[in-house]
């Protein structure tokens, strides 16, 4: 599966990215690992705000690019209602969006993240609002 995600940083900005391994990628962002994004290293990732899945990498790339092109207000709308991505895509692009699923992991992430990182000695912040 391919994941598109939005992270909120300490300065209240949003970072959008894609990955095939969400656990590994979140760890890179939140722990400021060498492979993490320069953006989140300098702004400290604090919360995972939204997570979507697609079946193909090209679809994930298109959606990541689309989300990155949105205004802050539109990104805030997606944080509140992740399912609004389909309608926003239709409205702005005048075409059907790629196949998008709100990740089943998103609802399970508070538990999964505790399991994934419970053995870690490093502090990982909030990761998501409900953790």
How do you describe this structure in short?
Helix content is 46%, strand content 21%. It has 131 residues and is of the alpha+beta class.
Main attributes of the structure:
46% helix, 131 residues, globular, five-stranded mixed β-sheet
Structure notes:
The protein is α+β, with helices and mostly antiparallel strands and 131 residues long. Helix content is 46%, strand content 21%. Strands 1, 2, 3, 4 and 5 form a five-stranded mixed beta sheet that branches. The chain is globular, with a radius of gyration of 14 Å. The C terminus is likely disordered.
Taking pLDDT < 50 over at least 5 consecutive residues as the criterion, the unreliable ranges are: 120-131
Pairing-aware structural class of the strands and helices? alpha+beta
Report mean pLDDT, rounded to a whole number.
Answer: 80
How many alpha or pi helices?
Answer: 6
- Tell me roughly what share of residues is in helical segments: 40-55%
The total beta strand count reads 5
Q: What's the alpha carbon Rg, rounded to whole Å? A: 14 Å
Write down the overall geometry.
globular
Largest sheet: 5 strands, mixed
Cα(first) to Cα(last) distance is 24 Å
- Sketch the topology as an H/E string, one letter per element: EEHHEHHHEHE
Strand content: 15-25%
């Amino acid at each position: 599966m391919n994941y598109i995600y939005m992270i909120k940083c300490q300065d209240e900005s949003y970072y959008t990215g894609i990955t095939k391994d969400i656990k590994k990628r979140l760890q890179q962002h939140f722990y400021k690992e060498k492979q993490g994004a320069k953006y989140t290293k300098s702004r400290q990732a604090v919360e995972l705000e939204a997570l979507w899945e697609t079946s193909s990498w090209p679809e994930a790339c298109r959606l990541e690019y689309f989300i990155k092109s949105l205004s802050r207000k539109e990104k805030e709308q997606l944080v509140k209602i992740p399912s609004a991505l389909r309608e926003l895509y239709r409205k702005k692009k005048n075409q059907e969006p790629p196949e998008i699923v709100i990740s089943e992991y998103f609802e399970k992430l508070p538990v999964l993240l505790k399991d994934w990182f419970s053995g870690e000695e490093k502090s990982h912040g909030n990761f998501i609002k409900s953790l």
